[in-house]
Amino acid sequence: MTKPFLTFEQQIDHLHNDLNLDISNRERLLKYLEKYNYENLINEFAYPFKDSTGYKFINRTSSNDIVALFNFDQSIRMNILSHIFTIEKHLNTCIAYCICKEYP
Q1: Torsion angle of alpha carbons 30, 36, 37, 42, nearest 10°?
Q2: In degrees, to the nearest 5, what angle opens at C-alpha 101 toward C-alphas 97 and 104?
Q3: Is 60 helix (H, G, I), strand (E, B) or coil?
Q4: Predicted pLDDT at 82
Q5: 3 state SS of 22
Q6: Which end of the chain has fewer CB within 10 Å, C or N?
Q7: Cα dist from 31 to 4, 27, 77, 85, whole Å
Q8: Is the CB of residue 45 less than 8 Å from the CB of residue 73?
Q9: How many CB atoms lie within 10 A of CB 94?
Q10: Are 94 and 86 within 8 A, CB to CB?
């Protein structure tokens, strides 16, 4: 089923009017939608805030709640990625050292 195109402003209106989301900072939400899109922001991070039907938001759920969860997830991802790079560099050094030692 194809969904109709909605502008970013219309997406915010849909979230508020149809899905019961409190839009605490419209400009902030607009910037996040423009930068990350509806799928990456709302569909991925709204689940914990949905009611038992899985469609509407629980009363008093704010757009700030979703943005905060998104930012928390981003910080965890960046932290993990940073550590993966450190491990990769160490592993590369160990492998290069062993190869050079064995085959001078």
Answers
A1: -80
A2: 120
A3: coil
A4: 95
A5: strand
A6: N
A7: 21, 6, 21, 30
A8: yes
A9: 10
A10: no
Name the residue with tokens 């194809």: 2
Q: How far apart are the first and last CA of the chain?
A: 63
- Residue 42: both structure tokens together: 């709302």
* Residue 74 to residues 13, 29, 41, 71, 96, Cα–Cα distance (Å): 26, 16, 11, 5, 33
pLDDT per residue rounded down to tens, the chain (104 residues): 788 999 999 999 999 999 999 999 999 999 999 999 999 999 999 999 999 999 999 999 999 999 999 999 999 999 999 999 999 999 999 999 999 999 98
